[in-house]
Fold:
Amino acid sequence: AADPGNEITAKVMVIIVNMWLGIPYTMLMTSGILMNIPADLYEAARVDGASKTKMFFKITLPYVIFVTTPYLISSFIGNINSFNTIFLLTGGLPAHGSYTAGGTDLLVTWLYKLTIDSEQFNTGAVIGILTFIITATITLITYRNSKAYKEEDTFQ
Structure:
């Protein structure tokens, strides 16, 4: 059996590396969005007597969420399929058995191991198809229910 301490350490390191890779891009995008919020909105809110907190929750936050929704959805799906980080850092280890997923395996890394290492092509094909169906369904439902889809011409 694998040492639980090593498994937790491996999971934490994978999360830290994913954050290290993703946060700079997200911050650049968010700062660009913040610089493009029309100043007229803030000026009108100040004239109407809105506090900074009210302006944040009524102007800034909705604008940022509206613009970043498609990115957040694709980032979430990208993290589900984060093969390179898992495979290069841990290889899915610590292992729990010959045909079971390891402690840090995702569906895509387990699929790779099943097909390349164990030659379980049938199981790998099923996992690949199910991963696609699940991620495509989540993406479509989430995006179709977002304001970015329903009100796409609002912030132009």
User: Anything to note?
Assistant: The CA atoms of residues 99 and 114 lie 7 Å apart. The helical segments are 4-35, 39-47, 52-80, 83-89, 107-117, 121-144, 147-150. The chain has a mean pLDDT of 86.
